[in-house]
Amino acid sequence: MSPAEQRVVRFFQGNREQTLIESALSLAEKVGTSDATVIRAVKSLGFSGMEEMRRSLADEMRSNPSPFNRLERTLDDVGDDLISALDTTIDIHQKALERLRRDITPENFEDAVQYIIAAKRVYIFGIGPSSAMANYFSIQLKRFGIEATSVTQTGILLADQLLHLRQGDLMMIFAYGRIYPELATILDQSAKRGVISLLFSDTLGTKLRDQVDLTLSVQRGRTDMLSMHTTTLGLIEALLVGVAKSQPEKAMASLKALNKLRTNLVGKRMDLPVSTNI
Predict the structure, then answer these.
(1) In angstroms, rounded to a whole number, what is the distance separating the alpha carbons of residues 133 and 277?
(2) Residue at 90 is within a domain
(3) pLDDT at site 99
């Protein structure tokens, strides 16, 4: 390994968060070398390229810090100035959204939309904070005329929610960090019942790529800081727009039916916005 490559590796070691989110060119500028040298340093470490190294680094970092440690690091970064909490958080979200744009290819996005509109029924699995994302996604899909159900139970209660999985259904999975029993059961039952599976994750894509049909890489902010969900929500809403764009008549008809039901319930018009320009 050349001296320049050694400098790059030392930078990786001391700046893991930047290594995760920045391009080879950006890292090269910080080290004072070329992007080609950065790529050579990555390959000298035994990785095929930047993405493989980032996945490995993210796995390592995600497996180490506890929620306490992540919050402690977040507060350390914020410092004593309260307004810094706003600035720091927005900065993290901006960088994560920029990473999302790079990570989600047009082909993957189109495949995800097609899986949703082609499915007989859509199941959305998420537990803990991800259960709120699953519930929101389910509600919005139903408003667009998609038969959708959130799967948010744990333990033996999960069995009831998986009982009627059938071939032709789609299982969308929000999972991060580790493969826990509920996730393993979801994957197993989806495979056995011929259910298409779509994984949203920051670190499990490599481990589960042979067990799911499609993985969408979604970072939850900085891996050593408090987990944040702006990118997940952003991707969900992009998919919702994609679904509506793909079948606008169905989406608008469903929203009109919802408006009519609301009017019947309250005795006056309670319109959701319905655009002819979806």
Answers:
(1) 26
(2) no
(3) 87
For the record, the structure tokens of 267 come out as 């005795």
Element of type H or E holding 197: strand 196-201
Residue 150's domain spans which residues? 103-246
Give the pLDDT score at 272.
62
Q: Please tell me the distance from the alpha carbon of residue 113 to that of residue 236, in angstroms, as a whole number.
A: 11
pTM of the complete model: 0.71
Answer yes or no: do 192 and 120 share one domain.
yes
Domain for residue 76, yes or no? Answer: no
Is residue 255 exposed (0-12), middle (13-18) or buried (19+ Cβ within 10 Å)?
A: buried
Q: How far apart are CA 194 and CA 29, in angstroms?
A: 48
The tokens 């197993």 sit on which residue? Answer: 188
Residues of the chain below pLDDT 70: 60-71, 221-226, 270-278
Same domain (yes/no): 228, 171: yes
CA distance 235 to 97: 9
